Amino acid sequence: MAWSVPPTAAANMVFTASQWNQGVRDNLAETAPAKATSSGGIFVTAGANSIAQREIASDYINAAETETSTTYTDLATAGPAVTVTTGPKALIWLSTQINNSSTNTSVMSCAVSGDTTQVASDGRAVLRDGGSGLDRRMGITNLFETLNSGSNTFTAKYRVSAATGTWQRRRLVVMAL
User: Fold this and answer.
1) Are 173 and 135 in contact (CB under 8 A)?
2) CA angle 66, 71, 74 (to 5 degrees)
3) Which residue range is the domain that position 39 belongs to?
4) Is 47 exposed, middle or buried (0-12, 13-18, 19+ CB in 10 A)?
5) More confident residue, 50 or 55
């Protein structure tokens, strides 16, 4: 007897190995525990009736570095940077200790490369606007919603409106979705 969907089980019903595999084993293989390939991941929907394991990754650079560029660029030590496999979305956290030598703006944003190309932008930035003096520890969370699924690298980028910006304790966390 062949069927595409096994009937409701009844007392004393006998299933063939093929029916058991199709109706029970194959369904259990679609659960999160069966799909997990490493610890520390999360599961997201990857389409109708489909899940995928994604990771949360981070990078941290402690050293204080300066820059005077008014367009987004790398510091002497580029990054932090994280490469993860994403679906069409990723949630990122940026944080830094930030300052400017004058009363100008210092900015830290994030660019994406790999299967997606997106430049750093002020709309997704941590910024200290005006006022020199004490460094400020600041952070921001952003949802990237227009990624191409695949391997994407998220890299912090920096700029100032004028004068010299200083960034220290730079952290980037990416939750691939």
Assistant:
1) no
2) 45
3) 17-52
4) exposed
5) 55
